[in-house]
Amino acid sequence: MEQHARVAIIGSGPAGYTAAIYAARAMLNPILIEGSQGGGQLSTTTDVENFPGFADVIQGPWLMEQMKAQALHVGARLVNDEITAVEIGERPFRLHGVQGAYSADAVIICTGAQAKWLGLPDETEYRGFGVSSCATCDGFFYRDQTVLMVGGGNTAVEEALYMTNIAAKVILAHRRDSLRADKVLQARLFANPKVEILWNTALVGIEGDPVAKSVRAARLADVGTGETRRLAVDGIFVTIGHTPATNLFAGKLDLSPTGYIRTQAGTTRTSVPGVFAAGDVMDERYRQAVTAAGTGCMAALDAEQWLMESAA
Ligand code: NDP
């Protein structure tokens, strides 16, 4: 049987749970559909030191459990289901999941984004233990150490510049002989004495200590000759971009050329009235737990106002 809610929220990262907390407290009786990876990207990270409010280091999965408990505590309905199709052409909106169907007067999309990985087996083994996709999240653990960044876009260069404030040495390996990043960022990178750039270089392996669970070295290959070599590093950041989870909305909502949901400036309103987007699925730039939570709050407030104005 179809379940109806004033507001349906898709996705259970910081944006989704925060939207649920605000919508529940606004008496909108929200239903939150958690998706396949409950807790979003934070559920697969380890230490979190930059979410305000905690003087001690906390764990990503624990933080998400707290947000979930808080959403339940204020009355949000949580459903463990994966949405596979959406009908947002007319109201009420309809969401079709593996377990059931849902209808809603307003929808908040918080389906997030996934960091792209190279697909190396060791990348998975050492993820969170020397291998990361986010310098803003994990860079602090490499103070005065040597780190390797992989990639040549804005993300790689921004994250490399961020690491120059922390690490002793920042080596950027890029598979081609020129960067894709904005020229101004490139100039800053080239001018930084802590930075070394390895052109035409691919990361092909990671050497670590499986007992201590730490990274010792990167195995690099010259893209032209195929020759490989070992480079001692303490941490590796794979910064080759993100993929927003927007397949469900292609052709139904305005998306950016890189696939992110477009929202009206300063709001979470999408191109379809009554459909809102929050968190990494609409934020190509900041991608932090706290900014996702912030836009989740905005989406619930935007939905509340829209429901009131449109008397939907
Ligand atoms: P991009 O797609 O722009 O760049 C990805 C980089 O990773 C490219 O250099 C690419 O190499 C490299 N890469 C991709 N796959 C592989 C692979 N398998 N092996 C090795 N290297 C690989 O992604 P970004 O995340 O950097 O940026 C995404 C968008 O977000 C862009 O539009 C960017 O401008 C924007 N952005 C803007 C920021 C800002 O304005 N401050 C900050 C961050 C992002 P190659 O060049 O050879 O394709």
Structure explained in plain terms:
With 312 residues, this protein is of the alpha/beta class. The protein is 25% helix and 29% strand. The chain is elongated. The chain folds into two domains: 3-114 and 243-311, FAD/NAD(P)-binding domain (3-Layer(bba) Sandwich); 117-238, FAD/NAD(P)-binding domain (3-Layer(bba) Sandwich), CATH 3.50.50. The mean pLDDT is 95. The site of NADPH dihydro-nicotinamide-adenine-dinucleotide phosphate has 18 residues, from helix 5.
In short:
With 312 residues, the chain is of the alpha/beta class. The chain contains seven helices and 19 strands.
Write the layout of secondary structure elements.
Layout: E1 3-10, H1 14-25, E2 31-33, E3 47-48, E4 58-59, H2 60-73, E5 77-79, E6 83-87, E7 93-97, E8 101-109, E9 113-115, H3 121-125, E10 131-132, H4 135-138, E11 146-150, H5 154-164, E12 169-173, H6 183-191, E13 195-198, E14 201-209, E15 214-222, E16 228-232, E17 235-238, E18 242-244, E19 275-277, H7 289-310
The structure holds NADPH dihydro-nicotinamide-adenine-dinucleotide phosphate.
The site of NADPH dihydro-nicotinamide-adenine-dinucleotide phosphate has 18 residues, from helix 5.
What features would you highlight for this structure?
FAD/NAD(P)-binding domain, 2 domains, binds NADPH dihydro-nicotinamide-adenine-dinucleotide phosphate, 5-stranded parallel β-sheet, 312 residues
